[in-house]
Amino acid sequence: MTDTEIEITADLVRDLLQEQHPDLAGLTIREVAGGWGNQMWRLGDELAVRMQRMDRTPELQLKERRWLPVLAPRLPLPVPTPVRFGEPSERFPKHWTVMTWVPGEPLDHGTISRGTHAADTLAGFLQALHVEAPAEAPIATDRGAHPRNCTAGFENFFQAVAPDDVAADVRAVWDDAVGAPSWEGPPVWVHGDLHPANVVVADGTLSGIVDFGSMFAGDPAWDLAAAWVLLPAGTASRFFDVYAQADEAAIRRARGLAALKSLFLMLMGQNGDRGLPGGKPNWGPAGRAALDRVLKGV
């Protein structure tokens, strides 16, 4: 059975629950829009089922199962925490996990109107997350490196979507990040994939962080890029003042990585406009807005 042959429906989710966690099978099941590597289904009011879909290995789900229960208790925002495990079966030969539901609206479908509050909230969250990770913590595979080791990815995104009117400025930001000193501290916990679809908002501010499948131990600059990718214009300086743990080199790396992430969002938006698989039409405007914030630098 290939990835595309597995049709995940509410009936399938209920059947799997009935087989492995029958006490949960009577709860209401509702599909959650979005998702690519995994598909989410609401389960009652307080839970969700995370179904492995396009991810070719269960590594990301297994990582969340192992480490989110360790991290969640010390984080100041709600994060999805695994409560039950679903194992591969004849009915569905992939992994699935029952997790706590994080209330709110994904930022790629919402807005932040309380910018200062959101900056303070994000800074506090990352202060709590960015502590030294244990030796057995996962190491980054496709992200987490110094920008100088990510030039191929940057060039691909840059050539595909960088606007002509700001291309030179974007490259200057990237070149500055490539030239910044490396992270010299101990590897810290890093979410690794902070973009508008992986945070939720309520009452005009950040209210939760989701999708920790990419988390790793390494350079916090990968998360600090969120100062420009997530927060409204003019609040990055406030974020770094409150975070208070980033030196000039970290900020330079983070700004370059924010440019990289902005171009990625723009490319996903372009793919969505063209109807390509995995494309996200609403990510394009979010990416361009983030890129404008990166270039202004505040």
Features:
alpha+beta, 10 helices, 298 residues, three-stranded antiparallel sheet, 40% helix, five-stranded antiparallel sheet, globular
- Spatial extent as radius of gyration: 19 Å
Tell me the total number of β-strands: 10
Number of helices: 10
Task: Determine the strand fraction and express it as a percent band.
Answer: 5-15%
Low-confidence stretches: none
Largest sheet: 5 strands, antiparallel
- Average pLDDT: 93
- Secondary structure category: alpha+beta
Can you list the strand order of the major beta sheet? 1-2-3-5-4
Proportion of helical residues: 25-40%
Shape designation: globular
- What is the end-to-end distance? 49 Å
Oligomer: single chain
Would you give an account of this structure?
The structure is a single chain. This protein is an alpha+beta fold and 298 residues long. The protein has ten helices and ten strands. It has helices at 10-20, 59-71, 115-129, 151-161, 167-178, 221-224, 226-229, 236-243, 248-273, 283-296, and strands spanning 29-31, 38-43, 47-52, 82-86, 96-100, 105-106, 188-190, 199-202, 205-209, 216-218. The strands form three sheets. A five-stranded antiparallel β-sheet has the order 1-2-3-5-4, with helices on both faces. Strands 6-8-9 form a three-stranded antiparallel β-sheet. A two-stranded antiparallel ribbon has the order 7-10. A hairpin with a 6-residue loop joins strand 1 (29-31) and strand 2 (38-43). The model has no long low-confidence stretch (mean pLDDT 93).
Compact summary:
This protein is 40% helix and 14% strand. With 298 residues, the chain is of the alpha+beta class. The longest helix is centred in the last third of the chain and has 26 residues, at 248-273.
